[in-house]
Design goal:
The protein is mainly α. Helices cover 82% and strands 0% of the residues. It has 14 helices and no strands. The longest helix has 33 residues. It is globular. The N terminus is likely disordered.
């Protein structure tokens, strides 16, 4: 009986030791994420998994960090392992869908976004990203349906309007695209890509002054925006402002060479 008691005490002490060690690694990993020491965080979460291959939180957090580091295959592997243990976690499907989308596996990403929507049909962001995947597959009408749902659920996500504008542009609805870009800008006026894309569409409609104003605004926000200088130069040349256009072309080339 005494030996059994000693063994139980030893087991409890060992479990407490590993539990404390696990908590230390986990806390350190979270702190490193906050400090953007992503590789250090991965090492901490990996150490937890070495000691306990069934620690779901470690897989989830390591997968999330790998996604931030653009290690999409690694993120998919960790998030898939997490989902083996917790197959009803909406956010894990969403993150895995992002990883698949970023690596160009659009059909697979749509499946994950759809699964996330089945679990929680009220997440506007997931609809928006599923729309992006559909747009990349040239399913523009399907993409617009998802953006519409995203906007219905949350009318304050600038990207949903922007992405819908891109899809409308592909469907030759230029005026509709401009309306959506303008709404995105109203919500988030500091995104240079919103102004740039609205400028491109205005140029297609031969609104050259409006296009130049948008490219200029994009450059104000991001002074190293080579594409905006190039497009502004093209439109200035079309407007017979050849000297000014040449200056923009030179600046665009300078920035591209600098890259």
């Amino acid at each position: 009986m005494r030996k059994e008691l000693i063994a139980i005490i030893a087991l409890v002490m060992t479990m407490n030791f590993y539990g404390q060690m696990r908590d230390n690694y986990f806390d350190n990993g979270i702190e490193k994420i906050k400090k953007k020491d992503y590789n250090g965080a991965i090492l901490d979460f990996s150490k937890i998994i070495e000691n306990n291959p069934n620690d779901t939180s470690a897989y989830f957090n390591r997968g999330s960090v790998k996604l931030d580091l653009e290690d999409y295959n690694g993120a998919i592997q960790d998030l898939s392992k997490f989902l083996e243990f917790k197959p009803k976690e909406e956010y894990a499907y969403y993150l895995r869908g992002l990883a698949k989308s970023y690596k160009g596996s659009y059909n697979e990403s749509i499946a994950d976004f759809t699964k996330a929507i089945e679990i929680n049909p009220n997440n506007a962001t997931v609809y928006s990203h599923r729309g992006v995947a559909k747009r990349n597959l040239k399913n523009y009408k399907g993409a617009i349906e998802d953006y519409n749902k995203s906007i219905e659920l949350n009318p304050n996500i600038a990207e949903s309007y922007f992405y819908r504008g891109l899809a409308k542009n592909y469907l030759e609805d230029k005026n509709g695209a401009i309306e959506d870009y303008s709404k995105a800008i109203e919500i988030d006026p500091k995104r240079e890509d919103f102004y740039y894309n609205r400028g491109v569409t205005k140029a297609m409609l031969k609104d050259y002054e409006g296009a130049i104003a948008d490219f200029t605004k994009a450059i104000e926000i991001y002074p190293n925006y080579a594409e905006a200088y190039h497009m502004r130069g093209r439109i200035k040349a079309k407007s017979k402002k050849f000297k000014d256009g040449f200056v923009d072309f030179e600046k665009a080339q300078e920035l591209k060479n600098y890259r």
